[in-house]
Design a protein that fits this description.
Length: 804
Amino acid sequence: MPGFPLRPFSPRCPRAWRQIVFGCLALGASVRAAPPRPVEYYTRTWTTDDGLPHNITSRVVQDAAGFMWLATVGGLARFDGREFRKIPVAGQTESLGFNIRGLAEERPGVLLVIPTDGQLLRLTGSATTVHPATTALAAVGDKPADLHVENSGAVWIGTFDGRLLRWQPDGATTWFGREQPLSTRSKRFTFATDEAGRTWVASDGLLAVFRDGDWRRHQAAPSGPMLIAPGKDGAIWVCTAARLLRIEHGRLAPVCDEVPWENEFNSIRHVFEDSAGNVWISSSRRGLFRYAGGRVEHIATPYASVSFVTEDREGNLWAATDGGAVQLREKAFQLFNVSTGLRQESVSAVCEDTRGRVWLANRAGGLAVVGPDDPRPLPPAWQDAAIYANVVCADAHGRLWFGGGRDGLRRVSLDAPVAPERLLEPATNPHLLFAAKNGDMWFAAGGDQLGCYHDDRLRIFTAADEFPSQTIRAIAEDAKGVLWLGGPSGSLLRWDGVRFQAFDSALGLPRRPIHAITAGTDGLLWICTAGGLIVKDGERLHVLTQAHGLADDILQQVLEDDQGRVWFASSRGFFHVAKAELLAVVRGGASRVTSHVFGRSQGLASVTPTANYQPSAARTRDGRLWFATTQGAVVIDPARLPRDLPPPPVVIDEARFDGQVLATGGDVRVPSGKHRLEFRFAALTYTTPDAVVVRHQLEGVDADWVESGSDRAANYSGLPPAHYRLRVIARNSTGQWNNDGATLSFTVVPAWWETMPARVGGLLLLVGASGGIARGVSQRRLKARLRRLEQEHALEKERVRIAR
């Protein structure tokens, strides 16, 4: 095989030696001392621009059906994940304002609401009634401020004058502090239920427990104001001006003695424990704090004033702020760009070395390296400021290969203090590097140059190797060690170590420019093209496009994650598909897949994945997926995406008959005729609600399921008299179907002339009329015949007379 030996590495100067040594030591230390990756949160805010009645919100409550209810200064709103609906509360007047000061669910379908007029109201559907406890409040001239509902249905009401009222479902009431207020300074009460089902109450200088009519103050209660919250394991969290404490089995113990709100506890508004065991503290001045892992950290929010924080059933956090309703979800991506340390915005290639560090080809910015869990990418100590890097690839021997433009290809050892060496080939414009399992480093450069380095010897492939002169943009190696290559010509080449073979031409596969090839598990080969995805399964090739459910046809990169998903970088950004769904289509068990877009709904602004360079995507040993884009390096952590969310509750929210709202409870009956029936429904999910699929079917009318559009509605007109049943089902963003869904039965009542008696009577009348008409016609015919006979007889008599 023709070739030549490489030149040995040589340091430039002693100073360079020192820089390399210190740089390698620093990188090694960063790897050894790497802290756990911090949890970041993506926030999404809904405001009056989205339909919220007012931006200042005070409470967020999820009801038993799954709707989110928001109390605002401008009134009460219900949210289904897509739109807000302002719910009028009877008794509110414009002069007193529409502020909702308190909100809680008393029982399924019934909300307790505290408006500004001092009453306690019940909201059932759209009907508002005055709660019986209002009478007891009016008797002492006090107004409700805080609410808590026990599992027994008893309602605790904290008042503005520092009193407590406990109302029981049988109408019995018990006052605490009626003569002498329990709280004289903060006049704010918080409640919690412990593992024994007892109700705890806290306020300024008050920490007490109530059970079976017995009210006792805790002997070890701290002085001063405090807030409490229930823990998921039955414990009670106690937040004071100086500490965060915990009550377990009645015993009070501190868990954190250093808190950031020590000098401004008056700004603390609410305490809450989420399903993961993290404790959240909301502040009216500094947003949110989170206690996790033994320490309290500040969590950035879009607005500094947060009055309330809670969690929905899917694990999303909700914060009521002065700037709207804010949803917080664990952030599943990072973006490395100029703001985080890169010298240039665009990244064209990424790779991982043997130490778990990720290298970024930053073009005119040279190289940057990100150690495991490092917060910022840094240039290596040996990097020349003038270096240009379009591609970068690490081999199994601890060497890094990189280059671009006129710099050609360079190589540096990461395990020894040596300077990078410039290789003879390619001399310019390398755009592809690939490390084969046998140690060969393949490269492609210029227009159609293809070669590899094997044991420090160079080989350039020519027509003698049956290599058709063409540009190569993608290389992958399958489980058998066979290399697959492709490029703009669309020809898929196979290299078996001896010669190249055009694999696709033998199968008659249409030519599509090939952008990337990735060897998947189970012997699969994923081939990204400008016209969809080609899947090599065994010796067969299958083409999947948007017609099969892919979000885009112009695919730039593909990676598998550890959660059974296949990720694509496309001209429209990123999306993923369940691998099982792809295989079901490839192997004939299904016709479509479901694509899940990863972008704006996860907090990632529009990015453009890099094309025409390899490797421009990599899955690192920690399971994260790295993609090169023109806006920087995007790192997606699939493990932080929600998996197997509960199926979304489905609600048939409204039915209208010729524009008039129908009551959907009980036996729904509508008259027949040329009338219009409209149904609106909701799938109550708040994790990427735009990815929800909703289907409906009117039994007896729709032959199959009908996929609803973005309006979540179904319209029917001119239905004939019959009994009907409307069914609605939905699937969430993780593919979980609620096949039970929701149903609504209704009857189209026939008009009187469409009833059976009327039809029978009409038939009899028709028969009788027909018989009468037939008889009349017969009689007329008989009479006419008699007249003719009489005339004939008279004529005959006249003839006889004349004859005589």
